[in-house]
């Protein structure tokens, strides 16, 4: 059997470089490669700890709505689960970096936030559950 693996998650945005900068600040990642309209980021030093994230400029990008409120809303296609040691502290840090706390919070031990392009992501602690 040939080897296959997911190497990178790619997020669309109006401005790939702006969104990449947010995730570099949030996750402590570094920029590994970039072109006009595209940026690849990953854990520092080429570490295998963590998933690489890439960002692509999409001129017709439409922000997702989470949770979906009515038929026809642009639904989220995926979200990132980010494990943290200090839920409240990391939530405050994410907001300071440019995230927005979502109005709807389905669990007490998970925080749903929206990145500057509107992609939902969850901060959770080991006692929390993933898969919102």
TrEMBL record:
Pfam families: Glyoxalase_6. It comes from the Bacteria. InterPro entries: Glyas_Bleomycin-R_OHBP_Dase, Glyoxalase_6, VOC_core. Gene3D superfamilies: 2,3-Dihydroxybiphenyl 1,2-Dioxygenase, domain 1. Residues 5-130 form the VOC domain. SUPFAM superfamilies: Glyoxalase/Bleomycin resistance protein/Dihydroxybiphenyl dioxygenase. PANTHER family: CONSERVED PROTEIN, HYPOTHETICAL FUSION PROTEIN. This is VOC family protein.
């Amino acid at each position: 059997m040939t080897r296959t693996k997911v190497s990178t998650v790619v997020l669309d945005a109006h401005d790939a470089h702006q969104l990449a900068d947010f995730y570099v600040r949030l996750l402590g990642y570094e920029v590994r490669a970039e072109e006009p309209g595209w940026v690849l980021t990953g854990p520092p030093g080429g570490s295998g700890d963590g998933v690489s994230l890439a960002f692509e400029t999409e001129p017709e990008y439409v922000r997702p709505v989470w949770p979906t409120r009515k038929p026809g809303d642009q639904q989220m296609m995926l979200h990132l689960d980010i494990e943290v040691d200090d839920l409240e502290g990391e939530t405050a840090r994410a907001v300071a970096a440019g995230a927005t706390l979502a109005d709807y919070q389905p669990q007490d031990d998970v925080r749903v936030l929206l990145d500057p392009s509107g992609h939902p992501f969850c901060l959770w602690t080991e006692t929390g559950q993933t898969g919102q």
